[in-house]
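thread: overnight batch results

M.L. [08:02]
morning all. the overnight job finished for the chain we discussed friday. pasting input first so we're all looking at the same thing
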Amino acid sequence: MSKLKHYETMFIIKPTLTEEEIQSQVELVEATIEKNGGEIVTRDNMGSRELAYEIDKNKRGYYFVIYFKCVPKGIAEIERNYRISENILRFIFIKYESKKDIASWTKMSDQAAKKAQK
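M.L. [08:03]
and the structure it wrote out:
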């Protein structure tokens, strides 16, 4: 079995969705990560923000970051699910590999977890 790697994914959800629809979309992303061999460590709801540029006639979006560990082959399927979702405007994956990167990932995920508890 391949080793779990450290990842961060940030995605932007359409601003036209209701609170429930946004929550449902985040849960769907989390379920997709778990279904593809991922373990979610924490998530950071960054809220509604103005986009750097208009995407599909949207000037704002809901930003979410999920810190997780996953087998590398699971990422392609998670990405495929992002692409077919009409509610996700943009997304990115960041892989942390070196000891320094993983230490940084751990610090950021700890901060996000503390923020979520407030």
